[in-house]
Design a protein that fits this description.
The structure holds two protein chains of two kinds.
Chain A: E1 6-8, H1 13-23, E2 27-30, H2 36-41, E3 49-52, E4 62-65, E5 70-74, H3 79-84, H4 86-91, H5 93-99, H6 105-110, H7 113-119, H8 125-132, E6 136-141, E7 144-149, H9 150-153, E8 154-156, E9 159-160, E10 167-174, E11 180-187, E12 195-204, E13 207-216, E14 223-224, H10 226-232, H11 239-252, H12 263-286
Parallel strand pairs in A: 1-3, 2-3
Antiparallel strand pairs in A: 4-5, 5-10, 6-7, 6-10, 8-9, 11-12, 12-13, 13-14
Helix pairs in contact in A: 10-11, 11-12
Chain B: E1 12-19, E2 22-29, H1 34-41, E3 60-63, E4 66-69, E5 82-84, H2 97-105, H3 114-127, H4 133-140, H5 151-170
Parallel strand pairs in B: 1-5
Antiparallel strand pairs in B: 1-2, 3-4, 3-5
Classes of the chains: A alpha+beta, B alpha+beta.
Bound molecules: flavin-adenine dinucleotide (FAD) and FE2/S2 (inorganic) cluster (2 copies).
The site of one FE2/S2 (inorganic) cluster has 11 residues of chain B, from loops.
Chain lengths: 287, 171
Protein backbone atom coordinates (compact mmCIF):
# COMPACT_ATOMS: atom_id res chain seq x y z
CA UNK A 1 0.00 0.00 0.00
CA UNK A 2 1.11 3.51 -0.78
CA UNK A 3 0.93 6.21 1.90
CA UNK A 4 -0.78 9.48 1.09
CA UNK A 5 0.88 12.10 -1.07
CA UNK A 6 -0.05 15.17 -3.05
CA UNK A 7 0.33 15.12 -6.82
CA UNK A 8 1.43 18.24 -8.64
CA UNK A 9 1.33 18.89 -12.35
CA UNK A 10 3.68 21.70 -13.31
CA UNK A 11 3.52 22.81 -16.92
CA UNK A 12 7.06 24.11 -17.27
CA UNK A 13 10.56 23.08 -16.24
CA UNK A 14 10.89 26.28 -14.22
CA UNK A 15 7.71 25.57 -12.29
CA UNK A 16 8.80 21.98 -11.60
CA UNK A 17 12.22 23.12 -10.45
CA UNK A 18 10.67 25.72 -8.14
CA UNK A 19 8.50 23.00 -6.62
CA UNK A 20 11.57 20.83 -6.02
CA UNK A 21 13.25 23.74 -4.30
CA UNK A 22 10.15 24.59 -2.27
CA UNK A 23 9.43 21.09 -0.97
CA UNK A 24 13.05 19.92 -0.71
CA UNK A 25 13.42 16.35 0.57
CA UNK A 26 9.64 15.95 0.76
CA UNK A 27 9.30 15.93 -3.03
CA UNK A 28 10.31 13.74 -5.94
CA UNK A 29 9.89 13.99 -9.66
CA UNK A 30 7.34 11.46 -10.87
CA UNK A 31 7.59 10.44 -14.53
CA UNK A 32 6.49 6.88 -15.36
CA UNK A 33 6.68 5.92 -11.70
CA UNK A 34 7.97 2.44 -12.51
CA UNK A 35 10.87 2.72 -10.06
CA UNK A 36 9.52 5.36 -7.72
CA UNK A 37 6.19 3.72 -6.89
CA UNK A 38 7.82 0.36 -6.16
CA UNK A 39 10.21 1.99 -3.68
CA UNK A 40 7.32 3.86 -2.08
CA UNK A 41 5.17 0.75 -1.91
CA UNK A 42 7.96 -1.13 -0.21
CA UNK A 43 8.30 1.83 2.21
CA UNK A 44 11.94 2.30 1.30
CA UNK A 45 11.24 5.98 0.69
CA UNK A 46 8.34 8.33 1.20
CA UNK A 47 7.62 11.62 -0.49
CA UNK A 48 4.70 13.80 0.55
CA UNK A 49 4.78 15.51 -2.85
CA UNK A 50 5.08 13.88 -6.25
CA UNK A 51 5.76 16.22 -9.11
CA UNK A 52 4.26 14.72 -12.25
CA UNK A 53 6.29 16.22 -15.09
CA UNK A 54 4.29 14.64 -17.93
CA UNK A 55 2.29 17.81 -18.61
CA UNK A 56 5.45 19.77 -19.43
CA UNK A 57 5.36 20.18 -23.21
CA UNK A 58 8.22 19.20 -25.49
CA UNK A 59 9.98 16.72 -23.24
CA UNK A 60 9.28 13.63 -25.31
CA UNK A 61 10.51 14.78 -28.69
CA UNK A 62 12.98 12.84 -30.80
CA UNK A 63 14.87 14.78 -33.48
CA UNK A 64 18.02 14.74 -35.55
CA UNK A 65 20.22 17.76 -36.09
CA UNK A 66 22.31 16.89 -39.11
CA UNK A 67 24.41 20.04 -38.91
CA UNK A 68 25.41 19.22 -35.34
CA UNK A 69 25.72 15.51 -36.17
CA UNK A 70 23.56 14.51 -33.25
CA UNK A 71 20.22 13.17 -32.21
CA UNK A 72 18.31 14.72 -29.35
CA UNK A 73 15.91 12.72 -27.22
CA UNK A 74 13.55 14.19 -24.65
CA UNK A 75 13.73 12.71 -21.17
CA UNK A 76 10.03 11.79 -21.13
CA UNK A 77 10.29 9.52 -24.17
CA UNK A 78 9.25 6.04 -23.08
CA UNK A 79 11.40 3.00 -23.76
CA UNK A 80 8.68 1.81 -26.12
CA UNK A 81 8.74 5.11 -28.04
CA UNK A 82 12.50 4.81 -28.49
CA UNK A 83 12.20 1.19 -29.57
CA UNK A 84 9.62 2.07 -32.21
CA UNK A 85 10.72 5.49 -33.41
CA UNK A 86 11.34 5.31 -37.18
CA UNK A 87 13.95 8.06 -36.83
CA UNK A 88 15.89 6.13 -34.20
CA UNK A 89 15.57 2.89 -36.15
CA UNK A 90 17.05 4.61 -39.15
CA UNK A 91 19.69 6.88 -37.62
CA UNK A 92 20.63 5.17 -34.36
CA UNK A 93 19.46 1.57 -34.78
CA UNK A 94 21.56 0.28 -31.88
CA UNK A 95 19.50 2.38 -29.47
CA UNK A 96 16.25 0.91 -30.80
CA UNK A 97 17.76 -2.57 -30.54
CA UNK A 98 18.83 -2.03 -26.91
CA UNK A 99 15.53 -0.43 -25.93
CA UNK A 100 13.51 -3.32 -27.36
CA UNK A 101 15.07 -5.61 -24.74
CA UNK A 102 14.60 -3.40 -21.69
CA UNK A 103 12.37 -4.86 -18.97
CA UNK A 104 8.97 -6.04 -20.24
CA UNK A 105 6.33 -4.51 -22.47
CA UNK A 106 4.46 -2.85 -19.60
CA UNK A 107 7.55 -1.23 -18.07
CA UNK A 108 8.68 -0.12 -21.53
CA UNK A 109 5.30 1.54 -22.09
CA UNK A 110 5.26 3.48 -18.82
CA UNK A 111 8.96 3.91 -18.03
CA UNK A 112 10.82 6.89 -19.43
CA UNK A 113 14.42 7.13 -20.51
CA UNK A 114 14.92 10.07 -18.13
CA UNK A 115 13.59 8.09 -15.18
CA UNK A 116 15.88 5.21 -16.02
CA UNK A 117 18.95 7.46 -16.13
CA UNK A 118 18.09 9.58 -13.08
CA UNK A 119 17.44 6.51 -10.96
CA UNK A 120 20.98 5.31 -11.85
CA UNK A 121 20.21 1.69 -11.09
CA UNK A 122 23.44 -0.23 -11.79
CA UNK A 123 21.71 -2.64 -14.19
CA UNK A 124 20.49 0.11 -16.51
CA UNK A 125 21.03 -0.79 -20.16
CA UNK A 126 20.84 2.76 -21.56
CA UNK A 127 23.26 4.09 -18.91
CA UNK A 128 25.98 1.68 -20.05
CA UNK A 129 25.19 2.29 -23.70
CA UNK A 130 25.22 6.08 -23.38
CA UNK A 131 28.60 6.16 -21.63
CA UNK A 132 30.09 4.11 -24.47
CA UNK A 133 28.32 6.33 -27.00
CA UNK A 134 29.60 9.55 -25.37
CA UNK A 135 26.10 10.93 -24.97
CA UNK A 136 25.53 14.21 -23.14
CA UNK A 137 22.65 15.00 -20.83
CA UNK A 138 20.94 18.35 -20.36
CA UNK A 139 19.98 19.28 -16.80
CA UNK A 140 17.70 22.25 -16.31
CA UNK A 141 16.44 24.19 -13.31
CA UNK A 142 14.75 27.51 -12.66
CA UNK A 143 18.27 28.98 -12.70
CA UNK A 144 19.25 27.80 -16.18
CA UNK A 145 20.59 24.68 -17.83
CA UNK A 146 23.86 22.81 -18.24
CA UNK A 147 25.23 19.84 -20.11
CA UNK A 148 26.95 16.87 -18.49
CA UNK A 149 28.73 13.99 -20.24
CA UNK A 150 27.08 10.64 -19.53
CA UNK A 151 30.37 9.41 -18.04
CA UNK A 152 30.28 12.23 -15.46
CA UNK A 153 26.55 11.95 -14.77
CA UNK A 154 26.72 8.56 -13.03
CA UNK A 155 28.58 9.23 -9.80
CA UNK A 156 27.79 6.16 -7.70
CA UNK A 157 25.21 3.60 -6.67
CA UNK A 158 21.83 5.25 -7.41
CA UNK A 159 23.69 8.56 -7.49
CA UNK A 160 24.04 11.15 -10.22
CA UNK A 161 25.44 14.62 -10.78
CA UNK A 162 21.90 16.02 -10.90
CA UNK A 163 21.29 18.80 -8.34
CA UNK A 164 18.12 18.44 -6.23
CA UNK A 165 16.30 21.22 -8.10
CA UNK A 166 17.32 20.02 -11.56
CA UNK A 167 15.37 18.02 -14.13
CA UNK A 168 16.96 15.90 -16.76
CA UNK A 169 15.37 17.32 -19.88
CA UNK A 170 17.19 15.71 -22.78
CA UNK A 171 19.88 13.46 -24.15
CA UNK A 172 22.23 14.30 -26.99
CA UNK A 173 23.55 11.34 -28.88
CA UNK A 174 26.31 11.88 -31.44
CA UNK A 175 25.51 10.23 -34.76
CA UNK A 176 28.46 7.98 -35.44
CA UNK A 177 30.43 8.94 -38.56
CA UNK A 178 31.34 6.31 -41.13
CA UNK A 179 34.34 4.39 -39.87
CA UNK A 180 32.84 4.21 -36.39
CA UNK A 181 30.80 1.36 -34.98
CA UNK A 182 29.07 0.54 -31.74
CA UNK A 183 27.75 -2.58 -30.06
CA UNK A 184 25.93 -3.50 -26.87
CA UNK A 185 25.89 -7.03 -25.50
CA UNK A 186 24.05 -8.23 -22.43
CA UNK A 187 23.18 -11.42 -20.65
CA UNK A 188 20.16 -11.82 -18.48
CA UNK A 189 18.37 -14.60 -16.71
CA UNK A 190 16.02 -12.36 -14.73
CA UNK A 191 14.35 -9.02 -15.35
CA UNK A 192 17.49 -6.92 -15.49
CA UNK A 193 20.83 -7.85 -17.05
CA UNK A 194 23.42 -9.79 -15.04
CA UNK A 195 26.23 -8.31 -17.10
CA UNK A 196 26.61 -6.04 -20.10
CA UNK A 197 29.40 -4.71 -22.28
CA UNK A 198 29.32 -1.78 -24.69
CA UNK A 199 31.97 -0.80 -27.19
CA UNK A 200 32.35 2.09 -29.60
CA UNK A 201 35.30 1.99 -32.01
CA UNK A 202 36.55 4.65 -34.38
CA UNK A 203 38.62 2.96 -37.08
CA UNK A 204 40.86 4.88 -39.49
CA UNK A 205 43.19 3.48 -42.15
CA UNK A 206 42.70 -0.02 -40.78
CA UNK A 207 43.63 0.91 -37.21
CA UNK A 208 41.61 1.72 -34.10
CA UNK A 209 41.97 5.46 -33.62
CA UNK A 210 39.76 5.71 -30.54
CA UNK A 211 37.71 3.42 -28.36
CA UNK A 212 35.18 3.70 -25.57
CA UNK A 213 34.66 0.45 -23.69
CA UNK A 214 32.19 0.16 -20.85
CA UNK A 215 31.12 -2.63 -18.53
CA UNK A 216 27.63 -2.47 -17.09
CA UNK A 217 25.37 -4.19 -14.55
CA UNK A 218 28.20 -5.75 -12.57
CA UNK A 219 29.38 -2.79 -10.48
CA UNK A 220 27.82 0.31 -8.96
CA UNK A 221 27.23 1.91 -12.35
CA UNK A 222 28.61 1.96 -15.88
CA UNK A 223 32.39 1.51 -15.71
CA UNK A 224 34.74 2.67 -18.43
CA UNK A 225 37.73 0.41 -18.94
CA UNK A 226 40.63 2.80 -19.74
CA UNK A 227 43.40 0.19 -19.63
CA UNK A 228 41.61 -1.97 -22.19
CA UNK A 229 40.90 1.09 -24.35
CA UNK A 230 44.60 1.99 -24.34
CA UNK A 231 45.59 -1.55 -25.19
CA UNK A 232 43.60 -1.59 -28.45
CA UNK A 233 44.23 1.98 -29.62
CA UNK A 234 46.51 2.16 -32.65
CA UNK A 235 46.08 -1.58 -33.28
CA UNK A 236 44.47 -3.40 -36.17
CA UNK A 237 41.03 -4.69 -35.20
CA UNK A 238 41.22 -8.48 -35.26
CA UNK A 239 40.06 -11.48 -33.28
CA UNK A 240 43.38 -12.04 -31.49
CA UNK A 241 43.47 -8.46 -30.26
CA UNK A 242 39.84 -8.64 -29.14
CA UNK A 243 40.43 -11.89 -27.24
CA UNK A 244 43.32 -10.28 -25.33
CA UNK A 245 41.31 -7.11 -24.74
CA UNK A 246 38.36 -9.12 -23.42
CA UNK A 247 40.67 -10.92 -21.01
CA UNK A 248 41.99 -7.62 -19.70
CA UNK A 249 38.47 -6.20 -19.42
CA UNK A 250 37.37 -9.21 -17.38
CA UNK A 251 40.44 -9.07 -15.16
CA UNK A 252 40.23 -5.34 -14.46
CA UNK A 253 36.50 -4.71 -14.09
CA UNK A 254 35.11 -3.88 -10.64
CA UNK A 255 32.49 -6.41 -9.54
CA UNK A 256 29.93 -5.71 -6.83
CA UNK A 257 28.81 -8.85 -5.00
CA UNK A 258 25.00 -8.86 -5.28
CA UNK A 259 22.15 -10.44 -7.13
CA UNK A 260 21.80 -14.01 -8.29
CA UNK A 261 25.18 -14.56 -9.95
CA UNK A 262 28.58 -15.04 -8.32
CA UNK A 263 31.32 -12.44 -8.81
CA UNK A 264 33.43 -14.99 -10.63
CA UNK A 265 30.65 -15.73 -13.08
CA UNK A 266 29.97 -12.05 -13.73
CA UNK A 267 33.68 -11.49 -14.38
CA UNK A 268 33.59 -14.34 -16.89
CA UNK A 269 30.50 -12.85 -18.54
CA UNK A 270 32.20 -9.47 -18.97
CA UNK A 271 35.01 -11.18 -20.89
CA UNK A 272 32.62 -13.05 -23.17
CA UNK A 273 30.38 -10.02 -23.77
CA UNK A 274 33.25 -7.60 -24.35
CA UNK A 275 34.76 -9.91 -26.95
CA UNK A 276 31.42 -10.02 -28.79
CA UNK A 277 30.92 -6.26 -28.46
CA UNK A 278 34.37 -5.52 -29.88
CA UNK A 279 33.87 -7.86 -32.83
CA UNK A 280 30.46 -6.43 -33.68
CA UNK A 281 31.57 -2.80 -33.24
CA UNK A 282 34.53 -3.44 -35.59
CA UNK A 283 32.24 -5.12 -38.10
CA UNK A 284 29.86 -2.15 -38.00
CA UNK A 285 32.76 0.30 -38.29
CA UNK A 286 33.86 -1.50 -41.44
CA UNK A 287 30.44 -1.54 -43.08
CA UNK B 1 2.94 27.44 -5.43
CA UNK B 2 0.83 26.24 -8.30
CA UNK B 3 -1.00 23.02 -7.62
CA UNK B 4 -2.85 20.76 -9.92
CA UNK B 5 -6.48 21.26 -10.61
CA UNK B 6 -7.27 17.58 -10.17
CA UNK B 7 -6.05 17.38 -6.57
CA UNK B 8 -8.39 18.51 -3.79
CA UNK B 9 -7.51 19.93 -0.37
CA UNK B 10 -8.41 16.64 1.26
CA UNK B 11 -5.92 14.61 -0.74
CA UNK B 12 -8.36 13.19 -3.24
CA UNK B 13 -8.24 13.36 -7.00
CA UNK B 14 -10.96 13.19 -9.57
CA UNK B 15 -10.85 10.86 -12.52
CA UNK B 16 -12.82 10.91 -15.72
CA UNK B 17 -12.19 7.88 -17.86
CA UNK B 18 -14.00 5.04 -19.54
CA UNK B 19 -13.90 1.49 -18.27
CA UNK B 20 -14.68 -1.05 -20.94
CA UNK B 21 -16.44 1.68 -22.89
CA UNK B 22 -18.53 2.91 -19.97
CA UNK B 23 -17.82 6.46 -18.70
CA UNK B 24 -16.63 6.59 -15.10
CA UNK B 25 -16.27 9.60 -12.85
CA UNK B 26 -14.69 9.01 -9.47
CA UNK B 27 -13.13 10.82 -6.54
CA UNK B 28 -10.42 8.74 -4.90
CA UNK B 29 -7.29 9.07 -2.77
CA UNK B 30 -4.32 10.26 -4.86
CA UNK B 31 -2.27 7.18 -3.97
CA UNK B 32 -4.87 4.69 -5.26
CA UNK B 33 -3.40 2.29 -7.79
CA UNK B 34 -5.25 1.47 -10.97
CA UNK B 35 -5.56 -2.12 -9.74
CA UNK B 36 -7.20 -1.08 -6.46
CA UNK B 37 -9.42 1.41 -8.24
CA UNK B 38 -10.75 -1.18 -10.65
CA UNK B 39 -10.97 -4.12 -8.23
CA UNK B 40 -12.13 -2.35 -5.07
CA UNK B 41 -13.98 0.76 -6.27
CA UNK B 42 -15.47 -0.64 -9.46
CA UNK B 43 -15.75 -4.26 -8.35
CA UNK B 44 -14.14 -5.72 -11.46
CA UNK B 45 -12.04 -8.59 -10.14
CA UNK B 46 -10.64 -10.08 -13.34
CA UNK B 47 -7.23 -8.45 -12.97
CA UNK B 48 -5.17 -10.20 -10.29
CA UNK B 49 -2.56 -9.00 -7.84
CA UNK B 50 0.37 -11.35 -7.74
CA UNK B 51 3.98 -10.06 -7.66
CA UNK B 52 2.92 -6.43 -7.10
CA UNK B 53 6.23 -5.25 -8.65
CA UNK B 54 5.61 -5.31 -12.44
CA UNK B 55 7.23 -8.65 -13.07
CA UNK B 56 4.36 -11.11 -13.57
CA UNK B 57 1.65 -9.37 -15.62
CA UNK B 58 -1.31 -10.86 -13.70
CA UNK B 59 -2.59 -7.32 -13.13
CA UNK B 60 -2.31 -6.22 -16.77
CA UNK B 61 -4.89 -3.72 -18.04
CA UNK B 62 -4.91 -1.72 -21.24
CA UNK B 63 -4.78 2.08 -21.12
CA UNK B 64 -5.79 3.38 -24.54
CA UNK B 65 -4.92 -0.08 -25.85
CA UNK B 66 -1.46 -0.18 -24.25
CA UNK B 67 -0.66 -2.78 -21.59
CA UNK B 68 0.36 -1.46 -18.16
CA UNK B 69 0.99 -3.09 -14.78
CA UNK B 70 -2.06 -1.80 -12.90
CA UNK B 71 -0.41 -2.81 -9.59
CA UNK B 72 2.22 -0.08 -10.04
CA UNK B 73 0.25 2.47 -12.05
CA UNK B 74 -1.59 5.25 -10.27
CA UNK B 75 -5.27 5.51 -11.15
CA UNK B 76 -4.29 9.15 -11.75
CA UNK B 77 -2.76 8.04 -15.06
CA UNK B 78 -6.12 6.92 -16.40
CA UNK B 79 -7.48 10.46 -16.65
CA UNK B 80 -9.16 10.91 -20.03
CA UNK B 81 -8.18 7.40 -21.11
CA UNK B 82 -9.92 4.20 -22.05
CA UNK B 83 -9.30 1.48 -19.47
CA UNK B 84 -9.83 -2.05 -20.79
CA UNK B 85 -10.05 -4.96 -18.37
CA UNK B 86 -10.72 -8.59 -19.12
CA UNK B 87 -14.42 -8.06 -18.33
CA UNK B 88 -14.59 -5.74 -21.33
CA UNK B 89 -13.64 -8.45 -23.80
CA UNK B 90 -16.78 -10.51 -23.34
CA UNK B 91 -19.06 -7.61 -22.54
CA UNK B 92 -21.48 -8.50 -25.31
CA UNK B 93 -22.03 -12.02 -24.05
CA UNK B 94 -19.63 -13.85 -26.32
CA UNK B 95 -15.96 -14.54 -25.83
CA UNK B 96 -13.32 -12.51 -27.60
CA UNK B 97 -11.54 -14.60 -30.28
CA UNK B 98 -8.44 -14.60 -28.07
CA UNK B 99 -10.37 -15.96 -25.11
CA UNK B 100 -11.98 -18.59 -27.35
CA UNK B 101 -8.58 -19.64 -28.66
CA UNK B 102 -7.24 -19.99 -25.09
CA UNK B 103 -10.16 -22.32 -24.35
CA UNK B 104 -9.77 -24.30 -27.57
CA UNK B 105 -6.03 -24.88 -27.20
CA UNK B 106 -6.11 -25.65 -23.48
CA UNK B 107 -3.99 -22.61 -22.65
CA UNK B 108 -5.70 -22.12 -19.29
CA UNK B 109 -4.97 -24.17 -16.20
CA UNK B 110 -5.37 -22.39 -12.85
CA UNK B 111 -6.29 -19.23 -14.75
CA UNK B 112 -4.49 -16.77 -12.51
CA UNK B 113 -2.33 -15.42 -15.34
CA UNK B 114 -5.01 -15.66 -18.00
CA UNK B 115 -6.65 -12.24 -17.87
CA UNK B 116 -3.25 -10.58 -18.18
CA UNK B 117 -2.17 -12.97 -20.92
CA UNK B 118 -5.29 -12.35 -22.97
CA UNK B 119 -5.09 -8.56 -22.67
CA UNK B 120 -1.40 -8.51 -23.55
CA UNK B 121 -2.12 -10.77 -26.53
CA UNK B 122 -4.89 -8.37 -27.53
CA UNK B 123 -2.47 -5.46 -27.78
CA UNK B 124 0.07 -7.63 -29.59
CA UNK B 125 -2.44 -8.75 -32.24
CA UNK B 126 -3.74 -5.20 -32.67
CA UNK B 127 -0.20 -4.15 -33.46
CA UNK B 128 0.95 -7.23 -35.35
CA UNK B 129 -1.89 -9.40 -36.69
CA UNK B 130 0.35 -12.29 -37.75
CA UNK B 131 3.16 -12.60 -35.20
CA UNK B 132 5.74 -15.37 -35.42
CA UNK B 133 6.31 -17.61 -32.39
CA UNK B 134 9.42 -15.53 -31.64
CA UNK B 135 7.43 -12.29 -31.85
CA UNK B 136 4.92 -13.74 -29.41
CA UNK B 137 7.60 -14.94 -27.01
CA UNK B 138 9.33 -11.56 -27.03
CA UNK B 139 6.13 -9.56 -26.54
CA UNK B 140 4.70 -11.86 -23.87
CA UNK B 141 7.95 -12.36 -21.94
CA UNK B 142 6.75 -10.17 -19.07
CA UNK B 143 3.65 -12.30 -18.46
CA UNK B 144 4.47 -15.27 -16.27
CA UNK B 145 2.50 -18.51 -16.13
CA UNK B 146 3.29 -21.08 -13.47
CA UNK B 147 1.10 -23.83 -14.95
CA UNK B 148 0.99 -24.26 -18.69
CA UNK B 149 4.62 -24.13 -19.77
CA UNK B 150 3.67 -21.37 -22.25
CA UNK B 151 3.53 -23.60 -25.33
CA UNK B 152 -0.23 -23.67 -25.54
CA UNK B 153 -0.47 -19.96 -24.79
CA UNK B 154 1.67 -19.31 -27.86
CA UNK B 155 -0.52 -21.74 -29.84
CA UNK B 156 -3.62 -19.89 -28.64
CA UNK B 157 -2.31 -16.49 -29.70
CA UNK B 158 -1.37 -17.80 -33.13
CA UNK B 159 -4.75 -19.45 -33.51
CA UNK B 160 -6.56 -16.29 -32.45
CA UNK B 161 -4.48 -14.29 -34.93
CA UNK B 162 -5.41 -16.70 -37.74
CA UNK B 163 -9.11 -16.62 -36.88
CA UNK B 164 -9.14 -12.84 -36.62
CA UNK B 165 -7.38 -12.51 -39.96
CA UNK B 166 -9.80 -14.97 -41.60
CA UNK B 167 -12.71 -13.03 -40.22
CA UNK B 168 -11.30 -9.69 -41.39
CA UNK B 169 -10.50 -11.16 -44.79
CA UNK B 170 -13.98 -12.73 -45.08
CA UNK B 171 -16.00 -9.72 -44.06
C1 LIG C 1 10.36 -5.11 -13.61
C2 LIG C 1 11.36 -4.12 -14.13
C3 LIG C 1 12.34 -4.52 -15.02
C4 LIG C 1 13.28 -3.62 -15.51
N1 LIG C 1 14.23 -4.06 -16.39
C5 LIG C 1 15.13 -3.18 -16.88
C6 LIG C 1 16.11 -3.59 -17.82
O1 LIG C 1 16.17 -4.75 -18.25
N2 LIG C 1 17.01 -2.67 -18.26
C7 LIG C 1 16.96 -1.38 -17.86
O2 LIG C 1 17.77 -0.57 -18.31
N3 LIG C 1 16.03 -0.96 -16.98
C8 LIG C 1 15.12 -1.83 -16.50
N4 LIG C 1 14.17 -1.39 -15.61
C9 LIG C 1 14.17 0.02 -15.20
C10 LIG C 1 13.23 0.87 -16.06
O3 LIG C 1 13.87 1.21 -17.25
C11 LIG C 1 12.87 2.07 -15.26
O4 LIG C 1 12.02 1.63 -14.23
C12 LIG C 1 12.17 3.21 -15.97
O5 LIG C 1 12.77 3.61 -17.17
C13 LIG C 1 12.13 4.39 -15.03
O6 LIG C 1 11.45 5.45 -15.66
P1 LIG C 1 10.18 6.11 -14.96
O7 LIG C 1 9.76 7.20 -15.87
O8 LIG C 1 9.18 5.11 -14.61
O9 LIG C 1 10.88 6.70 -13.65
P2 LIG C 1 10.22 7.08 -12.26
O10 LIG C 1 9.97 5.86 -11.45
O11 LIG C 1 9.11 8.03 -12.45
O12 LIG C 1 11.46 7.88 -11.65
C14 LIG C 1 12.67 7.22 -11.29
C15 LIG C 1 13.58 8.22 -10.54
O13 LIG C 1 14.06 9.22 -11.40
C16 LIG C 1 13.59 10.53 -11.02
N5 LIG C 1 13.23 11.18 -12.28
C17 LIG C 1 12.43 10.69 -13.25
N6 LIG C 1 12.43 11.49 -14.34
C18 LIG C 1 13.26 12.53 -14.03
C19 LIG C 1 13.69 13.68 -14.76
N7 LIG C 1 13.29 13.93 -16.02
N8 LIG C 1 14.53 14.53 -14.14
C20 LIG C 1 14.96 14.30 -12.89
N9 LIG C 1 14.60 13.22 -12.16
C21 LIG C 1 13.76 12.34 -12.73
C22 LIG C 1 12.46 10.27 -10.06
O14 LIG C 1 12.33 11.29 -9.10
C23 LIG C 1 12.87 8.95 -9.43
O15 LIG C 1 13.81 9.17 -8.41
C24 LIG C 1 13.23 -2.28 -15.09
C25 LIG C 1 12.23 -1.86 -14.20
C26 LIG C 1 11.31 -2.76 -13.71
C27 LIG C 1 10.27 -2.27 -12.75
S1 LIG D 1 0.89 -8.00 -9.95
FE1 LIG D 1 1.33 -6.37 -11.26
S2 LIG D 1 2.87 -7.18 -12.52
FE2 LIG D 1 2.62 -8.74 -11.06
S1 LIG E 1 -2.63 -20.96 -15.89
FE1 LIG E 1 -1.89 -20.95 -13.86
S2 LIG E 1 -0.48 -19.31 -13.88
FE2 LIG E 1 -1.00 -19.51 -15.94
Amino acid sequence: MLSAFTLHQPVSVTEASEMLRHYGDDAAIYAGGTELLVLMKERLVHFAHLIDIKQIPGLSSIAVDDAAGSMSIGSLASHRALERSPLIRERAPLLAEVESQVANIRVRNAGTIGGNLCFAEPHSDPATLFVAWDAHFTLASAGGSRTVAAADFFTGLLETAREPDELLTGIDLPLLPSGAGSSYQRFKTHERPAAAAAATLWVEDGRIRDARLVAGSVGIGPERLPATEEMIKGQEPDATLFARAAELAAASVFIEEEGFESAEYKRHLIGVLMKRALAQAAERAAS
Amino acid sequence: MTTTTRMTETGTITIDATVNGRPVHATIAAQTTLLDFVREELGLRGAKRSCDVQVCGACTMLLDGTPVSSCCTLAWEAQGKAITTIEGLSAHGSLDPIQQAFVDTGAVQCGFCTSGMVLTAKSLLADNPSPSRDDITAYMSGNLCRCTGYWRIIDAIQLAGERMRDKDGGS
